[in-house]
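Hi W., the EPU complex you wanted:
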Amino acid sequence: MKLEKNINLKKLNTFGVEAFATAMLTIESDSDIQQLTSILPDYPKRLVLGGGSNILFISDYDGLVIKNEISGIEVISEDNNFAIIKIGAGENWHNFTQYCVDNNYSGLENLALIPGTVGAAPVQNIGAYGLEQNSCFERLIALDLLEGGMVELSRDQCGFQYRDSIFKSEQKGRYLITHVFYKLSKSTSVNISYKELSQRLKDNQISQAMPKDVFCAVVQIRRSKLENPEIIGNAGSFFKNPVITQSQLDKLLEKHSEIKYFPFGEDFKISAGYLIEKCGWKGKRIGDCGVSEKHALILVNYGKASGKEIFNLSEKIIESVQGKFNILLKREINLVL
Ligand code: EPU
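Structure:
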């Protein structure tokens, strides 16, 4: 266990913004967790950090950052059809999806190349190309930072929704996830319902897609249209796609018949990237921050932008989308004050 004081978090968030934390503790094992519990009373304000890929620091953090680096991928049970895999929360998510396709465990291939750690995946219920992590999620183990002691939480208890879970809402800050369990299939059936994905497979001249083909196609799509945080600071989609009711949609279509929408349960999901682009923001730069030229849902840091500047830009975007379309965009990323 490593406890450091006055730590610059610039390299620990994919936006690459500067922010100092009072203290940071890196945990790598169960024994580190025991030690962590002993220093918790000294730090009432705490933040669990994984890959830092879904977070924006708006100011310095006057508390304890707990950097989760618990590793390990272990098949704990297996039959002819399924395997249950236990993964340390600090493992890199993409490496885990690579492990799955390499070992013929299917179900998560659509989620290749999503930045961040395995422990962060349930927090915001990561999803892409027609699939969310909750479709394979089995359970997780976490340290309860409020009551003390380890707890096990089932899929139902995690309250997964579109880019949301109890860890982002009513239980925010309460749990330190240490291990996640996924139930993966040994079949080769795949989900290629997302239009752009099936089109890419066609372009790749693949008629009977295997999980590995889907994995490769997703990697290709993401490399071509999303911003790589290793090249330019960003945290993926900054906003959620808004979900609106049938009557809101009808009203919207009266004025904007061209708008794109997708059925979402009984409601409809609107493409936030489309709304932002139509407000003229795509590729715009203010100082050292801006809206990606590739994808209007992604805000970028060209180098020296502060978290506050990126936040201010996001406020302006929300205001103009509200003004033009009467739709309130909600941020997908975690803001840390
Ligand atoms: N679009 C535009 N302009 C843009 C970008 C998108 O008009 O600049 C429109 C296009 O019509 C496009 C549609 O938006 O067809 C959908 O775009 P895309 O397929 O890129 O998906 P998205 O809805 O913008 C969501 C997720 C992404 C995920 C993709 C693929 C959210 C908030 N974002 O984006 O997740 O990779 O679908 O499934 O749901 C992330 O969470 O960080 C993330 C990247």
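The chain has nine helices and 20 strands.

W.
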